[in-house]
Amino acid sequence: MPDPAPGPSTPVSAADHELAAALATEAGEMLVALRAELAGSGPATLKREGDRRSHELLMARVATEAPGDGVLSEEGIDGAARLGAARTWIIDPLDGTREYSEPPREDWAVHVALVVDGAPVAGAVALPAQGVTLSTATPSPWPSAVPDPPRVIVSRSRPPAVALAVADALGARLVEMGSAGAKVAAVVRGEADVYAHAGGQYEWDSCAPVAVAQAAGFHCSRIDGSPLVYNRPDPWLPDLLVCHPDLTDQVLHVTGR
């Protein structure tokens, strides 16, 4: 097993877990309403307004509820202040913008996570079109047994070679899905068993999903088994592995442990 990510030195309270869940849920409900309000306006408008309004809502709420904390948002302007903060919120206001712009697709999400000492210590992934929020406030049940055959998630349009290699090694069947948040949520909810990605993402794509998956007992790491570290100067994260703990050794054998 890989070495664990650095543990937090700053206390994290139940209120932080609850805040992450509340913010993700609130932004998601707004996005569902906005989708209905802008019905027929076209994908470009849905993408632009969804990103903008969710970002503005979340920034205002974090400023009110967690003043003094750092923030890294996909839709914000990054700065050095978050690197010196004891606590930093990493947010994706709308994960799966394309999926959101294609009603009635449900595979899009809102990510809100709190990072301390490089580790996601609280987080939530809202799946607003499904009426679901997964969070560290109320972790999902511990993983049940792996089915036969196991299920490996791939993107609908561009299945990554690493995922196909894992599926071949496990004799798994492929499950197609959209956003990163929806993919990790599918693993957590028992709808899939492995999500291996090597095409590169940003920290906001995986931080909240990793917080939720770890709280539920799933393995989360880089694809070589090394720890995931967040709130770095460069938010680019080359790869990611989230999988059922019973499959960890088999998957890492394929992905480069």
Automatic annotation (TrEMBL):
<keyword id="KW-0460">Magnesium</keyword>
<dbReference type="InterPro" id="IPR000760">
    <property type="entry name" value="Inositol_monophosphatase-like"/>
</dbReference>
<feature type="binding site">
    <location>
        <position position="74"/>
    </location>
    <ligand>
        <name>Mg(2+)</name>
    </ligand>
</feature>
<protein>
    <recommendedName>
        <fullName>3'(2'),5-bisphosphonucleoside 3'(2')-phosphohydrolase</fullName>
    </recommendedName>
</protein>
<dbReference type="InterPro" id="IPR020583">
    <property type="entry name" value="Inositol_monoP_metal-BS"/>
</dbReference>
<keyword id="KW-0479">Metal-binding</keyword>
<dbReference type="GO" id="GO:0046872">
    <property type="term" value="F:metal ion binding"/>
</dbReference>
<dbReference type="GO" id="GO:0050427">
    <property type="term" value="P:3'-phosphoadenosine 5'-phosphosulfate metabolic process"/>
</dbReference>
<feature type="binding site">
    <location>
        <position position="94"/>
    </location>
    <ligand>
        <name>Mg(2+)</name>
    </ligand>
</feature>
<feature type="binding site">
    <location>
        <position position="205"/>
    </location>
    <ligand>
        <name>Mg(2+)</name>
    </ligand>
</feature>
<dbReference type="GO" id="GO:0008441">
    <property type="term" value="F:3'(2'),5'-bisphosphate nucleotidase activity"/>
</dbReference>
<dbReference type="InterPro" id="IPR050725">
    <property type="entry name" value="CysQ/Inositol_MonoPase"/>
</dbReference>
<feature type="binding site">
    <location>
        <position position="95"/>
    </location>
    <ligand>
        <name>Mg(2+)</name>
    </ligand>
</feature>
<dbReference type="GO" id="GO:0000103">
    <property type="term" value="P:sulfate assimilation"/>
</dbReference>
<dbReference type="Pfam" id="PF00459">
    <property type="entry name" value="Inositol_P"/>
</dbReference>
<feature type="binding site">
    <location>
        <position position="92"/>
    </location>
    <ligand>
        <name>Mg(2+)</name>
    </ligand>
</feature>
